[in-house]
Design goal:
Chain lengths: 237, 441
């Protein structure tokens, strides 16, 4: 599903070069739930933004769902991102002017789906996260946990091949965090491929596998303890 | 997607009413000021005879010589704007143009069939006046060539005067008392109000009403009718009517129709030859100097459009520019404040084009709202202008109104100007780096 080989990301200024990622290799199979951990500044978020096609990389190779993403222009990356990737951000990143329904609708709009199809997907996604009854509410009227659930619904509505979560419980209290993690685990059991960046070892332990990044390099790969059977037959979420 | 962008635009505009109002106000005030001045300028500088403005000409010759002719403000040479009787009759007899007309304003007492007499301003001219200037007739026609030759007492009435004198019947064929003489009515005009009244911008105001009766030039001269316009002399004339006609006093206007460049060239040569002959005859003691101006050139030469109006239009355009620059700044602030939203949309799959169109739609909505405010302010501005024109309002005021064309131009200008000024903020919005925005969260 996600395969990076000898990837590097360098930020260059007039004075200095900074290697955010260096000789970075990772392979996430379909149906895996991988936690990416590491200290602050290790390159976790850079890895996530590159994985999500939000940033270009300097060197190496990146294949997403079997396709090499090198050389794609901005529009191609946007479309690929829209079709294959679902994002869950630490700060939820819901659009405050839009209600729950319209927030979940955003990625579907850019796919130019017909209205009926969009409504069906939105309702299914909100039902999945248990917030169908709150579809007319605005983000400011929801708790943090509910907002994160809406963000998850937004990520799911497009039927992505890959879910990327950046500290999904970072802004939540313990109880809400537990609820969100339970939801992610349910999604994984249903066949979703999830890559979750976290600095919380307890959350990392709940993933299927942990990848540790230090100074832009993978320094530790935990052996997979449990793989989803026959991942090729699992439908996308 | 356009519907989606409109939906988003209306939501966003409602969210920050103050900032939205400021942008709309900036656009509306600028548009209102500019459209007010532009409407006045268009009203005063429109082509009064679009089909023929390039073929109708006013000739000028150096009647008084270099010592007496007025100097223009920039050192330009200004020839007298009118002619002597001797010159216009020579021009008419030379037939150097296919159509030509001499003219001067007259004032006569009109004695209606019932009621008391009243004074009315008319014009003495040649019959070609009506065809040259495309004067529309409601009934009848201009007097005949024979009438002109015979100095017949014939008249063409304007619509208003004809209606006043003969409210219940056709005026054509009837007689009217003008200046104590009975004139046979050969024609009645339709409503005709060229703006400006280009054929005579020397006598009276260029935006005055058209005269309400026309009589043959030869008839007016035969009856020794004084001019009701300007009468300027470099040298005092001899006494009596004959003295006036033989003097170097200028009091006649003259127009010639010259259909093409060859005709213009030939006519210019005719004027030079005429001036040279006058010098040879001892009348002129200076080299020939002539000028030939079409309608636009004549109106410009005579400064019919006050310079203040042109200056005001430039100032108004400058003011509009300042307003739009302000709007650019406000839109930049608006879009910058939503960088995180654009970053999220990009992360969710929006292309730069999607963000561009979303912002441009929002800008267009602001432009429409600004245009509507601009319309209201333009209406107020034009009303204030009409009030300040005084007596001129009755002539020009009718053109300084919000007709459908002006309304459409106002809104189009508002939307176009807002879109142009919104291009840079919109482009900036598309340059949002989603990764940077999301990391900054």
């Amino acid at each position: 599903m996600l395969k990076m080989t000898h990837l590097s990301k360098v930020y260059r200024t007039e004075v200095v070069e900074t290697y955010a990622l260096r000789d970075f290799s990772i392979h996430v199979k379909e149906g895996e739930f991988v936690a990416v951990t590491g200290p602050s500044g290790s390159g976790k978020t850079t890895f996530l933004t590159i994985a999500g096609l939000l940033e270009e990389f300097t060197g190496g190779q990146y294949q997403l769902d079997g396709a090499d993403v090198h050389g794609l222009n901005d529009n191609q990356r946007s479309r690929l991102r829209n079709q294959k990737i679902g994002f869950i951000f630490q700060s939820f990143n819901l659009i405050p002017d839009l209600n729950v329904f319209d927030n979940v609708d955003v990625p579907l709009r850019y796919r130019r789906l017909p209205g009926a199809e969009r409504r069906k997907r939105i309702n299914e996604a909100l039902e999945r996260v248990g917030l169908l009854a709150r579809s007319k509410h605005y983000p400011a009227e929801l708790s943090g946990g509910q907002q994160q659930r809406v963000a998850i619904a937004r990520a799911l509505a497009g039927g992505p091949r890959l879910l990327l979560a950046d500290e999904p419980t970072g802004n939540l209290d313990t109880q809400m965090a537990r609820g969100v993690m339970q939801l992610l685990e349910e999604l994984h059991r249903d066949g979703a491929t999830i890559v979750m960046v976290t600095h919380d070892p307890e959350l990392a332990a709940r993933a299927q596998r942990e990848v540790r990044i230090v100074d832009g390099q993978v320094i530790d790969l935990a052996a997979p303890t449990h793989l989803v059977e026959n991942p090729a037959t699992r439908p996308a979420v | 997607m356009l519907g989606y962008y409109l939906h988003l635009a209306l939501r966003t505009l409602r969210r920050n009413v103050i900032l939205t109002s400021l942008i709309i106000a900036a656009v509306g005030v600028g548009i209102g000021a500019y459209m007010t001045i532009l409407t006045v300028l268009i009203a005063m500088s429109g082509d009064p005879i679009p089909d023929r403005s390039d073929t109708l000409f006013v000739p000028q010759i150096d009647v008084w010589g270099p010592n007496t002719r007025p100097k223009g403000g920039t050192g330009e040479i200004r020839l007298p704007p009118q002619f002597t009787y001797r010159d216009v009759t020579a021009f008419m007899q030379a037939h150097s143009a296919p159509h030509q007309a001499a003219m001067y304003p007259v004032a006569l007492d009109v004695t209606p069939p019932k009621g008391i007499a009243f004074s009315q301003v008319g014009r003495a001219t040649h019959r070609d006046f009506f065809s040259m200037f495309e004067v529309p007739f409601a009934a009848g026609a201009a007097w005949s060539v024979q009438d002109e030759t015979d100095r017949a007492d014939v008249v063409v009435l304007g619509k208003t005067l004809a209606g006043k004198l003969f409210p219940n019947s056709s005026a054509v064929g009837q007689t009217v008392s003008l200046g104590g003489r009975l004139y046979r009515i050969t024609g009645v005009l339709e409503a005709w109000s060229p703006t400006p009244r280009f054929y005579d911008v020397v006598n009276g105001n260029a935006f005055s009403e058209v005269e309400d009766f026309f009589i043959p030039f030869t008839t007016a001269i035969g009856h020794q009718m004084q001019t009701n316009g300007n009468y300027n002399c470099a040298v005092l004339p001899s006494s009596g009517w004959a003295g006036r006609l033989s003097s170097e006093c200028i009091w006649f206007g003259f127009w010639a129709e010259l259909p093409n460049a060859t005709a213009v060239r030939n006519y210019r040569q005719y004027l030079l030859n005429y001036s040279a002959e006058q010098r040879r005859l001892g009348r002129f003691h200076w080299p020939p100097l002539v000028q030939l101006s079409n309608v636009h050139q004549w109106l410009s030469l005579m400064h019919v459009i006050p310079d203040e109006v042109r200056v005001n239009s430039l100032l108004a355009f400058g003011f509009l520019t300042v307003c739009l620059v302000n709007a650019v700044g406000l839109m930049l602030a608006r879009f910058s404040a939503r960088a995180s939203e654009f970053g999220v949309r990009r992360a969710l799959g929006a292309t730069r084009t999607d963000i561009f169109l979303q912002c441009l739609t929002e800008t267009a909505v602001v432009g429409v709202l600004g245009g509507m405010l601009g319309l209201a302010l333009t209406a107020l501005g034009l009303a204030a202008n009409r009030a300040s024109l005084g007596y001129l309002a009755q002539y020009v005021g009718g053109l300084m109104r919000l007709d459908p064309a002006v309304m459409a131009l106002t809104v189009a200008l508002a939307v176009g100007a807002t879109l142009c000024s919104g291009l840079y903020p919109t482009w900036r919005a598309t340059r949002v780096q989603p990764a940077l925005q999301l990391k900054a969260q």
